[in-house]
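Problem 12. The chain below contains 618 residues. Write out its predicted structure in token notation.
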Amino acid sequence: MTLTGKSGKFFILILAAFIPVLNGHAQLKIIPVFPGRQTPDNGFHKTRKAESDTINLPFWDDFSGNSSIPDPARWIEGSHVYINQSLAINPPTLGVATLDGAKNNAGIYDPDPLKTGLADSLVSKPINLGTLNTGEVNTIFLSFFWQYFGNAEIPDQEDSLRLLFKNQQNEWEVIDAFTRDRVVESDKFSQVIYKLDPRFMHGAFQFKFEVFARLSGPYDAWHIDYVYLDKNRSLTDTHYFDRAIFSTPGFLFGEYSAMPINQFFEDPQKFIQPSSFGIFNLDNIFQPIEYTATLVNTFDPAQTIEILNFNTEVNPILQGEERRQLFTSLPDINSLNPELDSIYITLKVHISSGDSILENGINYRVNDSTSADFVLHNHYARDDGSAEFGIGLEQRGGKVAYMFVVEESDVLNRVDIHFPNIGRIQAGSGFSVFVWKKLSDNPLDVMYERENLAVEAISDFDQFQTIRLPEITVVDTFYIGWEQYTPEFMTVGLDKQHDTGDKIFYNVDGAWAQNTEFSGSLMLRPYFGQSDPTTGLEDGSQDAARLNIYPNPSSGFIRMDTPFENYKIFDLSGALIREGRKKGEGHIYDLTGLREGLYMLRLEGLEITQTCKIIIRK
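Solution.
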């Protein structure tokens, strides 16, 4: 008997459920997570009204903006489509549109895990093709790049991506369908181009992408990039006078995006390294390119820390359709002040390639710049703050550990863990946090265990849960991890963009095993610092540090990386002088309008209010 469609998927899921039993014990597994998709500001009525807003040629979108939702100037539907810079592999430019079975804000189309059907769709605004002359009518072509899977969840055999055009009778026609059978290389994008027939030449032409997928979460992913519709084209018009950045800068501190400043300066040459980023020549002829890389103060971008490269020539010249990794110069250690308690760095890179600002209505320079943030302060992070997958176990009593090495002895006092949305509510799941000096069955190797913890509900998709620890002195190698109380799959965020999978270990049957199957970095961050009982709260530094508000003192630019809904700032007389709402995880708040002095900062949440002192110094 041949199983197809839903029956085939049912068989696969049931078989997968028995794999741990067949293997004799549970294994690490990963699952795609609901990423931080924004809720669009425009509501239903605004979206409907937008359908009557006709736009003109050319239509071009490479999704290189900073929004996670489609540009409403080009698209009328697609709020559930996720615009991102992490789920695709080697895209033409830095951003892509990902279509799958998940809605925004962790929504799903159907709770039935076996049900498949029409999921995400991306619909263009009406485009006026009704005023074209006879010569132009035969030169209208639509092109785009597509990829399946990438860093997301792999589509099943019966899943598909479809392209549709709207004809003069206002009916949608299927133009093409993409399935796994058409995939040549899963880590590359393919470009396709289509000529529009005369029946599509009307004043409100539209095109649409849609996917058929599992409807219960971020499964069966397809990626779209570099969508271009215009006149005066042909079937061979698949090259563009455009050089683009297609990957964000790599880490500056070895495998870390953040590390304790004292650990870094213990042996800075061991960690400091050039960063790299990818560029792609979308033309079929060579093109000279220069690039500039600059380190600036994250909280004050006008303050340059160091210019690593200035109009550095790419040598040899980038050839047509070539991809290449460019490397910045090695940062100068002397540009970083070891006397500071923290250094927040943004690496900004830009390429100069002669791309036109306005080529037939298209700004090819929008994809020529990118940046990344790095931290020297009080914690280790091997992730970029965004999870593509979650990793964990599906067994009560299962343990997962993450290895760290300190250059000098330090005092561990806290761990932050990201528990992402995975299609079920993890909040309330019980667990313990462990600190081990060695992974063994010897209880003496357990340095600390904090029991009876519960996963907290998250309001932001990339939010971390903070677990306070007593001051634990760690030397050389140590491990931090958790033991789960639930038999359900309990997962921690996994950043697939950066791989330290060899430092992940798990224990399901009394013996520790090293992860060898999955690549990525756990979104688990240990924090360090020894409290000084003789220090009062006059400067607010202890309370602010406890709430993860930094830098403090500051010139006015601060980050508030702790859960809250609203903030209020009072002067010492108790007068309210500033208030606002949380703008997103990792957002920098501009308080430069405040005078120098001491203030009270109140963070108000749904269930708790916390207060600390902050200092503004200019």
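Discussion. DSSP finds six helices and 39 strands in the chain. Students who got a different answer should revisit the alignment rule from Section 12.3.
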